[in-house]
Amino acid sequence: MLPLRKKVLVGDSDDIVLAIICHILNRQGFATEPIADRADIPRVMREGLYDAMIVDAMLEGVVEALPSAQLHAKRIILTSADGISVDGVHATLRKPLEFEELISTVRNCVVQDT
User: Fold this and answer.
1) Are 67 and 87 in contact (CB under 8 A)?
2) Tens of pLDDT along 6-50?
3) Is the pTM of this model over 0.90?
4) Using an 8 Å Cβ cutoff, are 76 and 53 in contact?
5) Spatial strand order in the sheet of 74-79
6) What is the pLDDT of residues 48-74, one digit of tens each?
7) With contact defined as beta carbons under 8 Å apart, do 18 and 32 qualify?
8) CA–CA separation, 28 and 64 (whole Å)
9) DSSP E strand boundaries for 35-90
10) What is the mean pLDDT of the segment spanning 81-89?
């Protein structure tokens, strides 16, 4: 378990994937905040206070919102597309997700900052 619960924003186009990511990260000691209203994700990325953001690159407005997202939050994008490259991203996770890769990526992004 982590000594301090790191807060992670999670946004995905699939409700099941969203729930699974949150469940896995919660079990690892992270505090997740799923965003159900996909249209609200770009605003939340700019205004919320998170240690990390895991967002689906295919959601409308997400890629455009990344440059204006919080500077201290680690940005992780989810994608099923080949060769996607987005400025300001700390890590990219490919769909379908490998759970161990999800956990290690989030840990590497946020736990090393403590």
Assistant:
1) yes
2) 999 999 989 999 999 999 999 999 999 999 788 888 888 888 899
3) no
4) yes
5) 31-34, 7-11, 52-56, 74-79, 91-94
6) 899 999 999 888 888 888 887 877 899
7) no
8) 30
9) 52-56, 74-79
10) 78
